[in-house]
Amino acid sequence: MNLSSQVIKEYVTQINQTSTGVTPYKNGVENADKLALGMITEREVKDVIQPFLYLWGWMYRVLERSEYSGWQRELAKMIGSNASVLEEFRTKELTADDPSQFRSEIKHCYDSFETVVGPIAAAKTLHLLCPSFLPPWDRKIARAAKTERSNGNDEDTKTEKLSGSDYFQFIVQVKNFIHTHDSLVSQLSSLYGKSKVKIADECFWWATQRPLFVLMSS
Asked: How confident is the model over 108-164, as pLDDT tens digits?
């Protein structure tokens, strides 16, 4: 096992040793899978998506700001308007399907959600609804991934705004990471009962305290 594989296994093991049983993540994904996205209501957003974003996604302090007042109602509308493509994404797996075929749809979904819940909760909501295809991110992961894409060009990393284009490019990075380490990621996915996309997220979450290029570069 090379160093990169050792690091990946250690990161994922650490996070799963401290999260056993029914976690907010697993509970959220299971409940979200039962939602009929084309008919989703504000009540369902409050009952299923809000607990996920607050308890697992740590988005309470953000989404309770006055600027996001009524976000549950607006998010229900956005999910409903994007329901057909989201339902298709639910059937996809990032390791088996080519995200470039859905570039415009992914960007549109992200940008739609971002206007309602902001850039981080947008990605986390998309992951909740399509956990095997669309990855979550937080601010540190998004910035680290953007730095890796910049190839040392500081101009590319100056803007704080995260766009649908940034999110799509991040998805490609996640797919490449899983492909590079497919055997180990598959083992960890089976061991912990999580999608490969989620295993990658757990690895990135720990790695943002360290150079992310160790993981993203092949």
From this structure: 999 999 999 999 999 999 999 999 999 999 999 999 999 988 875 555 545 568 999
Contact 121, 56 (CB under 8 A): no
22, 210, 35: which is closest to 131 by C-alpha?
35
218 close to 176: Cβ distance less than 8 angstroms: yes
Chain-centroid distance, C-alpha 47: 20
Contact 48, 32 (CB under 8 A): yes
pLDDT band, very low/low/confident/very high, at 1 (cuts 50, 70, 90): very low
Phi, psi of 152 (to 5 degrees): 85, 0
Region 80-92: what's the mean pLDDT? 98
d(CA 179, CA 68): 37
Query: How far apart, in whole angstroms, are the C-alpha atoms of residue 185 and residue 163?
Result: 28
